[in-house]
Amino acid sequence: KPTSYVLLNGTLQEIHWFKQPFGSWFVGDY
Fold this sequence. Notes:
There is one protein chain. With 30 residues, this protein is an all-alpha fold. The chain has one helix and no strands. It has one domain (1-30). The longest helix has 28 residues, at 2-29.
């Protein structure tokens, strides 16, 4: 299902973009 794959891929990229600043913040905190 190409549509589901594109939707899932877009969601994963969005989550990655959302977690990037928080990830660096957590790494800096530890």
